[in-house]
User: What shape does this take?
Amino acid sequence: MSDERTSVTLTVNGRKETGYAAPRLLLSDFLRQQLGYTGVHVGCEHGVCGACTVLLDGVPVRSCLMFAVQLDGASVTTIEGVAGQERMHPVQEAFKANHGLQCGFCTPGMVLTAIEFLERNPNPDAEAVREAMSGNLCRCTGYEGIVAAVLDAAVTMKQTEHNDKPNRENDA
Assistant: This one.
């Protein structure tokens, strides 16, 4: 097996980023060590816990199960890319307001999973939230705050979307 490193360019959180990766370097390690995105947490390294979840072209994936060299040219969103300049993403706000986090280790993966889930399912019930979040493990919260946070974020995101739409009646 070669230790030769290959140039890998990704669009991370909307910015082109380039680093060098050995063929077997995991995406999680590449993002953390080469590019400095330390919000990507590494837990089990087997794809079970969800702490390393990132969005790859908008889809949640376990970055500990992918090699960086596989993703040259791909678009990745990490937790560092979800908040705006002036305020947190509604899912982050809801996690804070509903005590959906404690130690914070699982939170980046939870938040990214919840964002993508709510984009696909803007009107979830508690059972759908539990199912969607079941691939992300948390040792601290007992999940009730997480479910409440996702449900709260769904309401906030719908209100924000509604408020952001132009009023066509006044355009005439």
